[in-house]
């Protein structure tokens, strides 16, 4: 997906405005992106889809869509239904003007990691073929996942991107942090991750980024729950803001904190502060 500049926005409609004013409100508070949450139901009402497209376009809000949680591309039992849900998500995304579908790839279950990954890759090829047959061209974004039982390590989503046309991962730093037992503590940890992504994809621009602070599970591995920015949990956003500013990255940064657009505004402010320092150098 072509992203023209760094953009910030919430995962879902804003909490401080009625839905009918959602997009104009995001613009008013300085935000310019939103991830439409289709996590429990895919929108099919043509009037709603047209309204979202019109409002987002008129207010310069770039959209992505989060597909249903009920997707498991690793499962023989649920695989066919999961493929259909992703294709239906693509139809909805195309009609509302979203260029990227974020989704959780699935669970290992009793499969080995490699077998689960191969099953997901083959399923994604079928999704791609299904969307192509409908004339729909958008990105499929397997998300880095936060629990060790889930398919979706950084390596795995990069493998999906390397092996299936039109797949570009959604990078959730909180999930990477939690999955790796609290691994992101500072700038060097972000740079390690970004070097890996750039080395595998060839470019850091054009990524959909999810961000929140996250509480680890009692075991110390995996996520328990999301927290507000500045809550004291990791990962810290400030070092990432510095990297975005210094590298001039063109990303969509989606706030998944409980405070949604309020924390998007905070993230943007931290980025602007970092950018002003870069310009002073």
Summarize the structure in words:
The chain has a single domain (7-280), classed as Divalent-metal-dependent TIM barrel enzymes (TIM Barrel). The two termini are 32 Å apart. By secondary structure, it is of the alpha/beta class. The protein has nine helices and twelve strands. The strands form four sheets. Strands 1-12-9-8 form a four-stranded parallel beta sheet. The mean pLDDT is 97.
Report the end-to-end length measured between terminal Cα atoms.
32 Å
Q: What's the architecture in CATH terms?
A: Alpha-Beta Barrel
CATH topology: TIM Barrel
User: Structural class, from secondary structure content?
Assistant: alpha/beta
Beta-strand percent range? 15-25%
Helix and strand pattern: EHEHEHEEHEEHEHHEEEHEH
Name given to the CATH homologous superfamily: Divalent-metal-dependent TIM barrel enzymes
Which overall shape is indicated by the principal axes computed on the Cα atoms? Answer: globular
- Overall number of structural domains: 1
Radius of gyration from the alpha-carbon trace, in angstroms: 18 Å
What is the spatial order of strands in the main beta sheet?
1-12-9-8
- Let me know the largest β-sheet: 4 strands, parallel
Average residue pLDDT: 97
- Helical stretch tally: 9
The number of E-state strands comes to 12
- The residue fraction in helices comes out at 40-55%
> Stretches where pLDDT falls below 50 for ≥5 residues?
none
In the CATH scheme, the class would be: Alpha Beta
Domain Xylose isomerase-like TIM barrel: 24-258
Protein name: Endonuclease IV
GO molecular function, one term: phosphoric diester hydrolase activity
Keywords: Endonuclease, Hydrolase, Nuclease
